[in-house]
Amino acid sequence: MPVNRRTALRGGAVAAASAALAATARPAFAASSADPLKKIVAGYRELQTGINRPSPERSAALKNLGRVAKSYYDSMTVSGNGPLWTDLPLGPGSDYTTSMYARLRAIAVDWGTPGGTLSGDPKVLDGIKKALELIYASQYNPQVGEIGNWYTYEIGVPYYLLHTLVTVADQLTAEELARYVSPVKRFVGNPNLRANNPKVVETGANRADKALISIVSGALTGDTAWIRTGIDAITDVAGGGAASVLAKLDRAAGDGFHADGSFIQHDTIPYPGHYGIVLLTALAGTIHVTEDTEYALTDDLKQKVYALVGDTFAPFVYAGALMEPVRGRMLSRQGETAHDIGHQLTVATLVLARSANGTVKAELSGLAAKWIKEGTYAPFLEIPDPERFAPGPDLVATPGIEFAQDMLAGPVRPTPIVATHRIFGQQDRMVHVTEGWSASLGVGSTRISRYESINGMNLHGWHVGDGVLYLFLPNAKGHYSDAYWPTVDPALLPGTTAKAGPPGPLAGTPLTTKAHVGGVRWDARHGAYAMDFVSEDGSLSARKSWFFTPAGVVCLGAGITDTSGQAVRTTIENRNLGENGRGTLLADARVVGDSAALHRPRWLHLDRVGGYVLLDNAEVTALREDRIGAWRDVDTGANTKGTTTPNTRRYQKLVIEHGAKPVDAKYAYAVLPGASVVGTVASALSWRVRANTADVQALRLWDNTLLANFYSAGTVDEVSVSGPASVALGRDSLAVSDPTQLQDSVRVTVRRRTVEVPLKDTFGATKVVPLR
């Protein structure tokens, strides 16, 4: 398994001095030491090896870790000037340097962890020392130049190196520590700037990583000024706070956390599901290692960090996994499924809870307990294959198990599931949570990219931002983690309207030409979302709406027009049924075979998934097929590439056919997650479609609430608007948002009353206006 830039060995990080060595050598960085530098090193070591809390789960994880570490050690050669491993050649700018350090760290983890297979073995320690020298001399020293990805030199390798060094620090002289840290000093001496291009000011996760690297490096070498520089980098003291990782931006897009809870990296990519967690992990590590020292973060800063968990991350966690629309290109990584990154978030939260107090501690512990309890697809307390996923410095390993069990042994209550409908306008994302299922959308606009496909990743990402409706169901918690991305038909993602035929070349981070993307929140159980869609080549356009309710999602499309000549389809469903998956599909009470053209069906039902109601006269194609794909098909990155092992998964497709060159075509259907056959048939009483045109799409709920998306000035029922808007109207109040994020205000006339709703600088947020 190749090692990716942020992952190398799930079982670990680096190891603490073992119990055997502690009996013969006085630790230079003992946890009880009053020396703040020694406390930092001991604290960072603890994040790698944990707290030696015995349990069967810890023992099982260590056994699996030892198997991998021993295989690396047994195959390592430290004599002569050749490579440490024959499959990882030496050389300038080697693509294999990160993997070398990752394997060495794996050995160090096991050597330094009490109970590890290699724990305390003096021959292993000697091998680690010789490997450190060889790899320093040949691959990573102050004289090497950055060749290839800057990240390798400035973050990836420094982290792995520091993990190994804190493990064996007691066994190295001050001169040796300074020698091995010297290249880190060169590349991360100023964590505020990119070493290979000082004009680049570091932001977000990269800045937080470099801050923690500086703090630990300074502690190892006695460089207190470097420690302080790392602490100051968090709030960007040098830049007057402009790049502070804790600043809350109040605008659309832009790296960092935002006032509405959004998190962006690479300027236009919603990334709570990767870079945001990397950043949170670095902050959790910083708080942990500096606690009770003169370098500790202020209480105000710590409270800001604690608050991020519930505001930015928790809304997008389902069954312990991060939702796909906030994972960017990382969804294509074989070694970083949604559950893997969810484990990483869980451990970061556990680490933060250890330093928190009172209600904040209870809230953080409650969230972590909830994710552990619900994450049955990939149990948090089990690490069966350390080689499959490795979060590098990201705290998922034996320490995670120990911290979790320590927390669960106390009076903690898992946070209950609470119905939520939330719109994050500053990253063009939304989430709809019910007690039984959840949903989110993948969209793109003039502010947020359709997709990210860089560094050889997300190679089938053409349509992930074209209006994908992601559904998360309790009996299919592994749906998107189970080889979904290498096997799903990328041209038929649920919710999208797309053309048949070749998809064309991928761009890096393409924006669309349409600003109208966003919606309105009515209450915790209802909301509307709209997308003015245009294909990447500009030939296909459509107006698309989603209306969210407790029972399901009503999907409307209008103005579907295409000039390419290719067949145009809207995908209702493309469900991963697993390998050799089963499940009866009914159409109007009749069993559907593997392939069928359904003429104007009224409803469909897929066993163990839910129901689908067709709200207009649609021609539907139903197709059940086995699809084969390898992770290498979607990720060929130098340090992230997937395996070529073929995966076969069975899919159920439900597709509305619009034909070639449609003009103003439409669709209207409802998706009812978890619904029974009876519930599917009876759902028609839950809503009424009031409009479905290229100008306005609207739905009336059972209690007479109106949800409407206007693409221009217009009227539906008793509501008129002066311009584009998403509107929710109830008995006593009116909710309005501007999905274009371009207007100063919108004038709404309702029940013979006209109100001017100010929307300037609200960035898609909902404004509520009382009507009484």
Automatic annotation (TrEMBL):
Xref: PROSITE patterns: TAT
Residues of the signal peptide: 1-30
Annotated ranges, domain Polysaccharide lyase family 8 central: 421-676
Polysaccharide lyase family 8 C-terminal domain boundaries: 689-746
Signal keyword on record: yes
InterPro entries found in the cross-reference section: Chondroitin_lyas, Gal_mutarotase_sf_dom, GH-type_carb-bd, Lyase_8, Lyase_8-like_C, Lyase_8_alpha_N, Lyase_8_C, Lyase_8_central_dom
Domain of life, source organism: Bacteria
Gene Ontology MF annotations: lyase activity
This protein's UniProt keywords: Lyase, Signal
Domain named Polysaccharide lyase 8 N-terminal alpha-helical: residues: 61-365
Sequence similarity: Belongs to the polysaccharide lyase 8 family.
Record protein name field: Polysaccharide lyase 8 family protein
Organism from which the protein derives: Amycolatopsis albidoflavus
